[in-house]
């Protein structure tokens, strides 16, 4: 059970940031109408609004490098909590930005997961 | 609803770090036997084990300074997700340590909340 949670957490993180860095518009497939995103303190709800926000971020090409992934089962929902730390390299910028992000993944009837809760913060030194 | 979630998140954060900095052994009141803590990658389960871990951390006096608190409702559980960033000042140390921490709070029958999921990470620059 513990191992399964770790594996799902890592697979999700790989998938999420691969889409973010290579095909950002496809991230909408990971959210649903109930999903919530808090991005640097800004609250956004629903797959359409979240997709719009992610596609309108003021940078085009970027690369996420993951430092840590911590996953725990989410009791009462059959879901998974995933906590990520890493750095974000923007194209043309010299320095990368440290970030932390958490996801609450909820199982779908199709045997996959969607993102119900997503909170993102840059870490200022 | 949104406002209530913000208020509960902030009140919890104030309470949690006040206890951590002033009466660390009392933190056990916030966890239950089902609770999970991942502390710098180390997984700990259950109120007794979590309490032991927190009380045996290799520093005595400390002060948490909170930078950001982001809260969202946790659908399906009636709970709250809380994401915190801040810095940790250890007594006798010159520099403070940046950290991020997330909590999944679940309502109790008594109308309060307990910590079901707790993930803590120091942010290295």
* Main sheet specs of chain A: 6 strands, mixed
Mean pLDDT of chain A: 94
Strand content of chain A: over 45%
The pair of chains with the biggest contact is: A-B, 31 and 31 residues
| Number of helices, where a helix is a run of at least 4 consecutive DSSP H or I residues of chain A | 2
* Helix amount of chain A: 10-25%
Q: Measure the end-to-end span of chain A.
A: 36 Å
Radius of gyration of chain A: 14 Å
| Structural category of chain A | alpha+beta
The count of β-strands of chain A is 6
Q: What's the CATH architecture name of chain A?
A: Roll
Overview of the molecule:
The first copy, chain A, is α+β, with helices and mostly antiparallel strands and 125 residues long. Chain A has one domain: Nuclear Transport Factor 2, Chain: A (Roll). Helix content of chain A is 24%, strand content 47%. Chain A contains 2 helices and 6 strands; from the N terminus they run αββαββββ. Chain A has helices at residues 2-22, 47-55, and strands at 31-39, 42-45, 62-74, 79-90, 97-107, 113-122. The first copy, chain A, has a 6-stranded mixed beta sheet with strand order 2-1-6-5-4-3, covered by helices on one side. The model of chain A has no long low-confidence stretch (mean pLDDT 94). The interface between A and B is medium-sized, with 31 and 31 residues.
